[in-house]
Design brief:
It contains 10 helices and 2 strands; from the N terminus they run ααααβαααααβα. The protein is mainly alpha-helical.
Protein backbone atom coordinates (compact mmCIF):
# COMPACT_ATOMS: atom_id res chain seq x y z
CA UNK A 1 0.00 0.00 0.00
CA UNK A 2 2.87 2.35 0.79
CA UNK A 3 4.39 1.57 -2.61
CA UNK A 4 1.14 2.56 -4.34
CA UNK A 5 0.96 5.81 -2.36
CA UNK A 6 4.58 6.59 -3.23
CA UNK A 7 3.99 5.81 -6.91
CA UNK A 8 0.94 8.09 -6.89
CA UNK A 9 3.25 10.91 -5.79
CA UNK A 10 5.84 9.91 -8.42
CA UNK A 11 8.28 8.83 -5.70
CA UNK A 12 10.46 5.72 -5.67
CA UNK A 13 8.82 2.70 -4.06
CA UNK A 14 12.03 1.99 -2.14
CA UNK A 15 12.11 5.41 -0.52
CA UNK A 16 13.30 5.48 3.07
CA UNK A 17 13.10 9.25 3.23
CA UNK A 18 11.11 10.03 6.41
CA UNK A 19 9.30 12.98 4.80
CA UNK A 20 8.20 10.92 1.76
CA UNK A 21 7.04 8.05 3.95
CA UNK A 22 5.15 10.37 6.28
CA UNK A 23 3.45 11.98 3.26
CA UNK A 24 2.47 8.53 1.99
CA UNK A 25 1.18 7.59 5.44
CA UNK A 26 -0.94 10.73 5.61
CA UNK A 27 -2.29 10.14 2.10
CA UNK A 28 -3.33 6.61 3.09
CA UNK A 29 -4.83 7.86 6.37
CA UNK A 30 -6.82 10.48 4.45
CA UNK A 31 -8.58 7.84 2.31
CA UNK A 32 -8.61 5.00 4.84
CA UNK A 33 -12.27 5.54 5.77
CA UNK A 34 -13.21 4.95 2.11
CA UNK A 35 -11.47 1.56 2.00
CA UNK A 36 -13.43 -1.51 3.07
CA UNK A 37 -10.42 -3.59 4.01
CA UNK A 38 -6.68 -3.97 3.65
CA UNK A 39 -6.05 -7.54 2.59
CA UNK A 40 -3.57 -9.41 0.44
CA UNK A 41 -6.42 -11.66 -0.75
CA UNK A 42 -9.17 -9.44 -2.23
CA UNK A 43 -10.12 -11.81 -5.07
CA UNK A 44 -12.83 -13.68 -3.08
CA UNK A 45 -14.37 -10.34 -2.11
CA UNK A 46 -14.53 -9.33 -5.78
CA UNK A 47 -16.03 -12.65 -6.74
CA UNK A 48 -18.78 -12.24 -4.12
CA UNK A 49 -19.48 -8.64 -5.23
CA UNK A 50 -18.46 -7.34 -1.80
CA UNK A 51 -15.98 -4.95 -3.41
CA UNK A 52 -15.75 -3.49 -6.90
CA UNK A 53 -12.15 -2.32 -7.07
CA UNK A 54 -9.03 -3.78 -5.51
CA UNK A 55 -5.30 -3.31 -5.26
CA UNK A 56 -4.02 -6.84 -5.74
CA UNK A 57 -1.31 -9.12 -7.02
CA UNK A 58 -1.21 -9.20 -10.81
CA UNK A 59 -1.83 -12.94 -11.06
CA UNK A 60 -4.98 -12.61 -8.92
CA UNK A 61 -6.16 -9.62 -10.95
CA UNK A 62 -5.59 -11.43 -14.23
CA UNK A 63 -7.36 -14.54 -12.91
CA UNK A 64 -10.34 -12.48 -11.71
CA UNK A 65 -10.55 -10.91 -15.19
CA UNK A 66 -10.34 -14.32 -16.84
CA UNK A 67 -13.03 -15.73 -14.54
CA UNK A 68 -15.46 -12.84 -14.90
CA UNK A 69 -15.63 -10.36 -17.79
CA UNK A 70 -16.98 -7.62 -15.52
CA UNK A 71 -13.52 -7.33 -13.95
CA UNK A 72 -10.64 -5.70 -15.74
CA UNK A 73 -7.06 -6.06 -14.59
CA UNK A 74 -4.76 -3.16 -15.47
CA UNK A 75 -1.52 -1.55 -14.43
CA UNK A 76 -2.16 1.97 -13.10
CA UNK A 77 -0.82 4.84 -15.21
CA UNK A 78 1.34 5.87 -12.23
CA UNK A 79 3.15 2.54 -12.36
CA UNK A 80 3.38 -0.53 -10.19
CA UNK A 81 5.73 -3.03 -8.64
CA UNK A 82 7.63 -5.21 -11.10
CA UNK A 83 8.20 -8.68 -9.77
CA UNK A 84 9.52 -12.02 -10.82
CA UNK A 85 9.32 -15.50 -9.40
CA UNK A 86 12.55 -17.39 -9.00
CA UNK A 87 13.68 -20.90 -8.33
CA UNK A 88 16.31 -21.34 -5.64
CA UNK A 89 17.88 -24.26 -3.89
CA UNK A 90 18.74 -23.68 -0.25
CA UNK A 91 22.34 -24.41 0.63
CA UNK A 92 21.04 -26.68 3.40
CA UNK A 93 19.07 -28.84 0.96
CA UNK A 94 19.59 -32.58 1.16
CA UNK A 95 17.85 -33.13 -2.18
CA UNK A 96 19.85 -30.98 -4.56
CA UNK A 97 19.58 -33.38 -7.51
CA UNK A 98 15.80 -33.54 -7.13
CA UNK A 99 15.65 -29.76 -6.87
CA UNK A 100 17.57 -29.38 -10.13
CA UNK A 101 15.23 -31.86 -11.85
CA UNK A 102 12.23 -29.89 -10.53
CA UNK A 103 13.66 -26.64 -11.90
CA UNK A 104 14.62 -28.27 -15.20
CA UNK A 105 11.05 -29.56 -15.54
CA UNK A 106 9.63 -26.03 -15.38
CA UNK A 107 12.28 -24.68 -17.71
CA UNK A 108 11.21 -27.07 -20.47
CA UNK A 109 9.26 -24.98 -23.03
CA UNK A 110 6.04 -27.01 -22.87
CA UNK A 111 5.89 -26.67 -19.08
CA UNK A 112 6.88 -23.00 -19.11
CA UNK A 113 4.10 -22.41 -21.66
CA UNK A 114 1.57 -24.24 -19.50
CA UNK A 115 2.64 -22.23 -16.44
CA UNK A 116 2.28 -18.93 -18.29
CA UNK A 117 -1.15 -19.75 -19.70
CA UNK A 118 -2.64 -21.33 -16.58
CA UNK A 119 -1.31 -18.75 -14.14
CA UNK A 120 -1.72 -15.63 -16.29
CA UNK A 121 1.93 -14.65 -16.09
CA UNK A 122 4.66 -13.72 -18.52
CA UNK A 123 7.38 -16.19 -19.31
CA UNK A 124 11.07 -15.52 -19.85
CA UNK A 125 11.40 -18.78 -21.76
CA UNK A 126 11.87 -17.64 -25.37
CA UNK A 127 10.65 -20.91 -26.88
CA UNK A 128 7.53 -20.93 -24.71
CA UNK A 129 6.87 -17.26 -25.43
CA UNK A 130 7.03 -17.93 -29.18
CA UNK A 131 4.24 -20.49 -28.71
CA UNK A 132 1.94 -18.15 -26.77
CA UNK A 133 -1.22 -16.96 -28.52
CA UNK A 134 -1.04 -13.42 -29.89
CA UNK A 135 -3.62 -12.34 -27.31
CA UNK A 136 -1.08 -13.14 -24.58
CA UNK A 137 2.01 -11.63 -26.19
CA UNK A 138 0.09 -8.48 -27.12
CA UNK A 139 -1.25 -8.06 -23.57
CA UNK A 140 0.54 -5.01 -22.10
CA UNK A 141 -0.21 -6.22 -18.58
CA UNK A 142 2.15 -9.13 -19.13
CA UNK A 143 4.49 -7.84 -21.82
CA UNK A 144 4.49 -4.06 -21.32
CA UNK A 145 5.87 -1.66 -23.88
CA UNK A 146 8.93 0.37 -22.86
CA UNK A 147 6.84 3.40 -21.84
CA UNK A 148 4.92 1.34 -19.28
CA UNK A 149 7.93 -0.76 -18.31
CA UNK A 150 9.76 2.45 -17.40
CA UNK A 151 7.04 3.14 -14.78
CA UNK A 152 7.47 -0.24 -13.08
CA UNK A 153 9.83 -0.55 -10.14
CA UNK A 154 11.42 -3.52 -8.40
CA UNK A 155 11.25 -3.50 -4.63
CA UNK A 156 14.55 -3.66 -2.78
CA UNK A 157 15.34 -5.22 0.54
CA UNK A 158 15.02 -2.18 2.81
CA UNK A 159 17.01 -3.84 5.56
CA UNK A 160 16.60 -2.19 8.95
CA UNK A 161 14.46 0.56 7.38
CA UNK A 162 11.68 -1.97 6.89
CA UNK A 163 10.92 -1.97 10.61
CA UNK A 164 10.12 1.77 10.41
CA UNK A 165 7.76 1.17 7.50
CA UNK A 166 6.12 -1.73 9.35
CA UNK A 167 5.62 0.53 12.38
CA UNK A 168 3.96 3.17 10.21
CA UNK A 169 1.69 0.50 8.69
CA UNK A 170 0.73 -0.80 12.14
CA UNK A 171 -0.10 2.75 13.23
CA UNK A 172 -2.24 3.27 10.14
CA UNK A 173 -4.22 0.09 10.69
CA UNK A 174 -4.82 0.86 14.35
CA UNK A 175 -6.65 4.18 13.97
Amino acid sequence: VFAAALLWKKLPVNSTDPKSLETAKQDIAHIKNKILTFTSEPKPLLQRDEIYIAHMFSTDGAQASADNAKFRYFIPKEGAILWTDNFAIPTSSHQVDEAYRFIDFFLEPEHALELALNNHVATTNKTARARLPKSATDNPNFYPQKELLDRLQMMDDLGSELSKLNQMWTELKSY
